Amino acid sequence: MSLLNNINKVANEPVVVSYLANKVMPISVLELQQETNKLTAIFNALDSGAIAFQLDNTPAWLVVDAATSAANKVAVPIAHFFSQQQTQYVLAQCGAQFFISDMPRHSLGKHSLSVTLFEHYTLYIYQLDAIEPVDYFTGTQKITFTSGSTGEPKGVCLSTQSQMQVAQSLYEQINISNPVHLCLLPLPVLLENIAGVYAPLLSGGCVHLMPLNELGFVGSGLKNPNKLIGAIDSVKPNTLILVPELLTCLVAFAKQGWQPPKSLKFIAVGGARVSESLILTAREYNLPVYQGYGLSEAASVVSLNTPNYDDINSAGEVLGHVETKVENDELFIKGSLFLGYLNQAPHNPNIWYATGDLVSKRNNKLYIKGRVKNLIITSMGRNVSAEWPESLILSQSAIQQAVVFGESQPFLSALIYAAPGFSDEQLKAHLKTVNQQLPDYAQIKKWHRLAQPLSEQQGLLTANNRPKRAAISQHYSPIFEQFYRLGEVIHE
């Protein structure tokens, strides 16, 4: 079972529409199959159990994804926003002896061969040296790497069956035939991969792909939102998938007079918790937004709110193939889940998987409360353990306290207490050095220097001097409001 075997289209109908330098290229099922066959033949000749690839949002990504499955290779898609250090870590961990890029990577030496797909997309295939072989779980088709809460991404091993099961459940739950879907998230992001490509194609739909820079993205952030709005206006899609930051962008434009296309029928938002007030506002401006919940270990989506059973306060009904239970407010799931983490013990499908998320459940709908572990999820859906940037900030001995925040926000901020003799300029220089060691989604964009250290007496530290993050956030709420509303660096 592969992606192409599940496309619900006749051979000459367009299944993908590509945009390249203002050129619109419809691609039929037959053309997609022909290019996949061409690449499959190349993959069959490669002596490697896995193939890693880091590509833009183009039809070439879909061909590589399909060809790895057809050639019985493990696909290892790598997000474009991973830092070079993270990418090297993934390559070292996954056992892939070949790496595919849509641009020359001189640091990897000379490419072994190249191939051009659809006459426009050249792929450079590099053979990697000194890669240790890896024993994959039986049935592994894809390894999706999380953004890495501590800087080292974690490989989640998925079967074709688990991915297609989620896509099928989404197709049934959303219930829109022949949808026109515009991919706004990077294709290596599992949510867009499964819900934005597989599910629409199962529904007889057509997927529209634009390079990320043409959508206004630079790195992991949206730098030119006008391009994003222009893409939506041009394509006039029926469906979109957003993270909260992108939803906030669309709402801001709508408030300024932008009229969302009447073609829009369903906008799924996920990746981080979304406030009910934001969803209500979006709907007031004709953005049909519905919240979902998921995780990579469940092959992306676990629950999704829909128009038929709308509850704006919830993350929707649990998909039909997933079993759930709640113990001590924590969500546990079972069903067609991941096979295990790469280079770790396999996941036992007969036991409940602890998600680490705090929820309540009523009438088979999930209501998200928070997380058991202390993990920041930004409004772009990136996972960052607060201790990661904090440890780098505290590597300077003159800095005695650093607490990082940014839950559901577009960037991270920090409260910092440094010795009085350590000047603001020195602190700024140190933070610049820290940020150079972090991918852009984990960098500290705004910071506030404390005049006095946090203390247990204030109720801001535990007895063993660990920060009480909720109390600190509340105590300094005016500071954070200025950070995320006004956007300037301020000091006491």
TrEMBL record:
The keyword Ligase applies. Transmembrane segments: none annotated. InterPro entries: AMP-binding_CS (IPR020845), AMP-dep_synth/lig_dom (IPR000873), ANL_N_sf (IPR042099). Pfam families: AMP-binding, AMP-binding_C_3. Residues 27-330 form the AMP-dependent synthetase/ligase domain. SUPFAM superfamilies: Acetyl-CoA synthetase-like. Signal peptide: none annotated. The keyword Ligase applies. Keywords: Ligase. GO terms for molecular function: ligase activity. Belongs to the ATP-dependent AMP-binding enzyme family. PANTHER family: ACYL-COA SYNTHETASE, MEDIUM-CHAIN ACYL-COA LIGASE ACSF2, MITOCHONDRIAL. This is Long-chain-fatty-acid-CoA ligase. It comes from Pseudoalteromonas undina.
